[in-house]
Fold:
Amino acid sequence: MDEFVALANRMADTAGKIIQKYYRQPFDVDRKSDNSPVTIADSEVETALREIIAKKRPGDGVFGEEFGHQESETGFTWVIDPIDGTKSFMIGRPTFGTLIALCEGDVPKIGIIDQPILKERWVGVEGKKTKMNGKPVQTRQCKDFDDARIGSTTPMMFDKLEDYDRAFHIFERGTSNMVWGGDCYMYGLIASGHMDVAFEQNLSPYDFAALVPVIKGAGGHISDWRGDELTLNSVGKVIACGDPDLWPILERMILKSPY
Amino acid sequence: MDEFVALANRMADTAGKIIQKYYRQPFDVDRKSDNSPVTIADSEVETALREIIAKKRPGDGVFGEEFGHQESETGFTWVIDPIDGTKSFMIGRPTFGTLIALCEGDVPKIGIIDQPILKERWVGVEGKKTKMNGKPVQTRQCKDFDDARIGSTTPMMFDKLEDYDRAFHIFERGTSNMVWGGDCYMYGLIASGHMDVAFEQNLSPYDFAALVPVIKGAGGHISDWRGDELTLNSVGKVIACGDPDLWPILERMILKSPY
Structure:
């Protein structure tokens, strides 16, 4: 597993160098989307990471946001989101990240959340303590929903009105501690014990696979909204909480809500 | 005016040093709110800045988030928000900021947005070019609403349903470029030409006074939702856009919406 982790770190290094080149570069807002800095950076990163995988682990599968799914011959699949939080990247806000996961079958075993501008990297490995920039991190205790600092990315990620209402009324009306604009960075903040809950919908496997080992290795709970383990086949309803004792409370709130 | 700007910069330096001490410090989430790091940092910063003003400009007024309004004997009033974006501060996300404005009468003449973790500071002075870390900045061109990158802090800042609907349907449904979780930092991003529009409600004078010289000095438009100049007497409905040619389009959208 150590060799896989070293390779994943090398991939994150490569991604970061490319992203730093394009971050906050001026560009015409009416430029075609296939020619914007974020689109160029996205595809340049994924191309570079696929080249590394092809050279070092030629039989492994690759599932990336930009260039789709390449089947695995080894049982291992790399799951890549070059820039998670493209809107934050586009406005020059350093809360986006590169997500790199290694799955065995459809189960995430290694996950990296890398923020290349702030130079913050969370590395999660199944069965090991999650580290941020090489130092072990631990989620914090928070057993009371009223104390929880809760995050999501945008109300519009909840595609059905009842899902949105659920998030909105339970998670926003129910607490004054709701923060929006989260992206992958908030899962790092949960792992490091600064934040308590993330609640999202409509995530793709490349959006959440890397988060699983990071949150679990820091002592937190992460699952779909029913409490089932997240795999490459999950539908993308993701809930994470730093204190596993908070999960049963959240689960009851989700079940009780009109759905 | 140069002496005022030097004093404002010195105040921002002082604020930043205090905030850096408390940022991401671990604390019990069930600790009383009057004893949380953000509350301590907030009042420690405002106390320090009031001491500087009392020493250097004893007759000036002070209007701060924490300790209220001290009347001016000179015609000048310092308007201070020690930590704008307290929720971002609380979750360890470096997109909050210290806001310092100098008003003559009720009109903002100098504004500073300071992000002490990223060490980014925007300084706006009436009639001068806004600078970020000492370098002149300029908003970018964006004449088409569909191209605009739009930000707000939270949907819940819109207190009446029609206001919320207006923001939500026009500004979110109407564009795929909406970003949440903005706080004062997004006005800096507009000044630097990375973002196009900010749209907020329920801001207090200490939330928006500093933004006015920053946005105007970078070439942008900032006003209340009717297009009137923002002063200490404004009600806190704030709209800013980097390209002044976009404002008449936004104004028509606001007027046309059900209100």
About this structure: The domain at 2-136 of chain A is CATH 3.30.540.10 (Fructose-1,6-Bisphosphatase; Chain A, domain 1).
